[in-house]
Amino acid sequence: MNRRSFLQQSALLASGIVLGSWNSKGLLAANSASMQLSVDVLTTEPVRAVGLIEALIQNSNLSLKNLVYTDYQLLGDYVGDIVVTTNGQLLDYKKQNGDFAQNIAEISQSLGLPAQVQNPSRLRIATAVPGQKAEKIHIFHKNTLLAELDIRENNEVIDIPASHGNLQLSVQNGRAKLRTASCKHKTCVKMGSIARPGEQIVCIPNEIRISVSGIRSSGVDSLAF
Questions:
Q1: Which of 5, 20, 40, 143 is deepest in the core (most CB within 10 A)?
Q2: Residue 25: CB partners within 8 Å, gap ≥ 6?
Q3: Structural domains present in the chain
Q4: Phi/psi of residue 147, each to 5°?
Q5: How confident is the model over 168-216, as pLDDT tens digits?
Q6: What do you get for the CA distance between the two ends of the chain, in Å?
Q7: Cis, bond preceding 46 (omega within 30 deg of 0)
């Protein structure tokens, strides 16, 4: 991956792409109402999963505001599945009636979920929710998740293996900051600390990005599969 493509990918994926409308090129359709929706998928077929969810949202005439799309790869063995919340409530699409629940069940079946998967992609399409509280620090090499840390737990030194050496991260009092980096100009170290959802630190030479994610006030964690 070259420097330009890594920088573009980091800018889009670390804090999420805010989408206004979903057209045939892959942007989600949204209008002016205020329904809250989140769809999280762990799958080895990310392109097909996004296409199925795109078609569902287009055909369901859902009332949605800004939608945020994120994805990254996980390493290891996981149980692939799909998790959906509407207005902060978990949707039990396997038991609930209604067209939307049935359509989610059909997507799950089409993707062969739930199932044991190796090195899956984790996709998320959700309405942007203001006032999120910082909860996690995510560390990525390229677009692969290396580690997930609780931002509320203090860590003096966290070693991060990178493309050209190592970086050291510290988490103190709800803020994350790079202490040292093997890159030449140390721009990533000079970025200072991050603490709010969506903020990130990027080291382009080492292809490392560190981002803060948040939790909604409802307390529903749709990342737990």
A1: 40
A2: none
A3: 3-127 (no CATH), 133-215 (2.60.320.10)
A4: -160, 155
A5: 999 999 999 999 999 988 989 988 899 988 788 989 899 998 988 886 5
A6: 30
A7: no
**pTM attached to this predicted model:** 0.63
pLDDT digits (tens, 9 = 90+) for 41-90: 999 999 999 999 988 887 877 666 677 788 888 888 898 999 888 876 77
Angle at 182 between CA 177 and CA 70, to 5 degrees: 55
Tokens in use for 42? 């762990």
